[in-house]
Design brief:
mainly alpha; 6 helices; 74% helix
Length: 105
């Protein structure tokens, strides 16, 4: 099980990154934090501990969420269209494809 400290340290920054590019007036902060916790828990379930691979994966997801040119990725996570489990297992190329589809619209 994920320690509460790790969960808070990871989830709050992920939640902040998800929320900074959404119109938070329409998205409940609790929902964003719930999605961020879900992502962290899915990554932890993949690795079973907080080793270097876990930290590298969290950093990679963090970078993709922070990408201002990829709002559809954040929106799909918050809406539930993209589950935390699926997001946590995506390759960086697939995560970037959300950016490509957004740029084409």
């Amino acid at each position: 099980m994920v320690s509460h400290t790790i969960l808070v340290l990871v989830s709050i920054p992920l939640a902040f990154l998800i929320s900074i590019t959404l119109d938070v007036a329409f998205v409940a902060t609790d929902l964003i934090i719930t999605r961020a916790k879900g992502v962290e828990q899915a990554v932890y379930a993949q690795f079973g501990n907080t080793n270097g691979e876990y930290k590298g994966k969290i950093r990679s997801l963090f970078v993709n969420l922070k990408d201002k040119g990829n709002p559809s990725l954040r929106e799909n996570i918050v809406s539930g269209e993209l589950s935390p489990e699926k997001f946590s297992k995506m390759s960086s190329e697939v995560r970037l494809s959300f950016r490509s589809s957004w740029l084409c619209h």
